[in-house]
Design goal:
CATH architecture: 3-Layer(aba) Sandwich
Keywords: Cell cycle, Cell division, GTP-binding, Magnesium, Metal-binding, Nucleotide-binding, Septation
Shape: globular
Largest sheet: 7 strands, mixed
Pfam family, one: MMR_HSR1
GO cellular component, one term: cytosol
Helix content: 25-40%
InterPro entries: G_ENGB_dom, GTP-bd, GTP-bd_ribosome_bio_YsxC, P-loop_NTPase
Radius of gyration: 16 Å
Organism: Marivita hallyeonensis
């Protein structure tokens, strides 16, 4: 049953044309461009840009690999918070897909965390070509306080963000509604939140075509 009457409904399945546009976008060239550790290293903001943000171990690398159809494009690490760079990938001739460092980890040194937080704030507030941030939320846990912090930063930076639920195959169908209720309640406090949710499973492939179609439709 469609839940379009609810606040923050799940995105409806794409029509054939949108699905094909998303498939074609990621069937073309997708390449790692560079890892950036300072604003001076950012590539020119001359193309449409979307970024992926999420807590460590939320399944971000797996989702990026699933969306792009590349098994090892984004390197999954067993050490939360190991990636301290903003990683840029080119998608075709006119898009960047940007992988932000995982946040909310306790193992990294304080000065390292502070340095990347400062870079993240600069990037989010100063990137004119950034059209949307996808904030990944683990379906098993819902929105945690650290997720709220990044969403507040996106609000302040006036960057539209859309929640993507990951690992939807890891919870029972009966738990799904409770997670959606919690996410919707939290998002109601964030003015920059995009009004539709995407539910995905990188392992099963659920929602991947939908996410591709959404990215392809951003102009």
């Amino acid at each position: 049953m469609s839940d379009m009457r609810l606040p923050f409904p799940l995105v409806e399945d794409p029509d054939d044309a949108s699905r094909e546009r998303g498939r074609k976008l990621f069937a073309g060239e997708v390449d790692f461009l560079k890892g950036v550790v300072a604003m001076s290293g950012l590539p020119p903001d001359d193309r449409i840009e979307v970024c992926f943000a999420g807590r460590s171990n939320v399944g971000k690398s797996s989702l990026i690999n699933a969306v792009t159809g590349r098994k090892a494009l984004a390197r999954a690490s067993n050490t939360p918070g190991r990636t301290q760079e903003i990683n840029f990938f080119t998608v075709g001739d006119d898009r960047y897909l940007v992988d932000l460092p995982g946040y909310g980890y306790a193992n990294a040194p304080v000065n390292v965390v502070e340095k990347w937080q400062a870079l993240l704030k600069q990037y989010l507030s100063g990137r004119a070509s950034l059209r949307r941030a996808f904030v990944l939320i683990d379906s098993r846990h819902g929105i945690k306080p650290v997720d709220d912090e990044i969403m507040t930063l996106l609000d302040k930076s006036a960057v539209t963000f859309q929640v993507v639920l990951t690992k939807s195959d890891k919870i029972k169908p009966s738990q799904h509604d409770a997670v959606l209720d919690q996410v919707r309640e939290k998002l109601s406090k964030h003015p920059a939140a995009f009004p539709e949710l995407i539910s995905t499973s990188s392992e099963k492939g659920d929602g991947i075509a939908t996410l591709r179609a959404v990215i392809a439709g951003i102009t």
